[in-house]
Design brief:
2 domains, 13 strands, four-stranded mixed beta sheet, Ribosomal Protein L25, Chain P, RNA Polymerase Alpha Subunit, Chain A, domain 2, alpha+beta
Length: 276
């Protein structure tokens, strides 16, 4: 049984409590049972290592308060949000016949003797703590799970764990799982498909055929395009010829008019000569 030494404290104001912390003490309170609450303080140096253990809140301690011992159980720890150092502890008195609901940590042993883990299996922990109803006379520090002779796909349920007398889980409607030994998960990366042809490699026949077909189609299209251009050029030549013929025809009437005008002028001149 662990023994903790504490002293009564009369400090109540925030300034006095801060001064107490700066002097290396942790303020605490003791409550429960038929006695009244009691303000106490403990040396931080004596608690630093104990508080960091997983079983601190599930162990029963003998608290020596100025020479007067009391059985207590740590119930809550307050931490500084910046330094993460403990700044306050709540203790509850242990009285006979009292039943407490506690979260008890789970510890796994003999992992080196597990054939399943030796084959590469993985221990999948479902619950690191289990909530139990415990009488004050029989509070377990931890729940022990033995991994000896366990194979892959083995499950550890609450029914397979040996609990102290009169200690029962708070979950009673099912046989819940604490941990399992599972096969390792292997991630296989998909193979990368090379899109470009490596140097020195001959392209596939299908690719050559496709390229040849595309080349033939391109040549035929070019020939057809040239033929279409020739056909389009011929009507333009016909139009040119027609335009030149029309122009020559249009020029002939103008010549006839010129001749007629000159004839009329000569006739008029002969008439005037006769009159004279």
């Amino acid at each position: 049984m662990n023994v903790l030494k504490a002293t009564k404290r009369t400090t109540t104001s925030t300034g006095q409590i801060n001064k107490l912390r700066s002097d290396g003490f942790i303020p605490a309170v003791l409550y429960g049972g038929e006695k009244s609450n009691l303000n106490i303080s403990l040396k931080k140096l004596h608690l630093q290592d104990l508080i960091r253990t997983e079983t601190f809140t599930s162990k029963v301690f003998d608290l020596d308060i100025d020479g007067r011992p009391e059985k207590v159980l740590p119930r809550d720890i307050a931490y500084d949000p910046v330094s993460d150092e403990p700044i306050h502890i709540d203790f509850i008195r242990i009285a006979k016949g009292l039943i407490l609901t506690l979260e008890i940590p789970v510890r796994f042993i003999n992992s080196e003797k597990s054939p399943g883990l030796k084959k590469g299996g993985v221990l999948n922990i479902v619950r690191r703590k289990v909530e139990l109803k415990c009488p004050t006379e029989n509070i377990p520090h931890e729940i022990v799970v033995d991994l000896d002779n366990t194979e892959i796909n083995t499950s550890f349920k609450i029914s397979s764990v040996k609990l102290p007398e009169n200690v029962v889980p708070t979950i009673t409607d099912r046989d819940f799982v604490i941990a399992t030994v599972v096969a390792p998960t292997i991630l296989v990366e998909p193979e990368k498909v090379e899109e470009t042809t490596a140097e020195g490699e001959v392209p596939a026949e299908g690719a050559e055929g496709a390229e040849g077909a595309e080349g033939a189609e391109g040549t035929e299209g070019a020939v057809k395009t040239e033929e279409g251009k020739d056909k389009m050029a011929k009507p333009s030549d016909d139009k040119t010829k027609t335009a030149s013929g029309d122009k020559s025809k249009a020029g002939k009437p103008s010549d006839d008019k010129t001749k007629t005008a000159s004839g009329d002028k000569s006739k008029t001149a002969s008439k005037e000569t006769k009159k004279k």
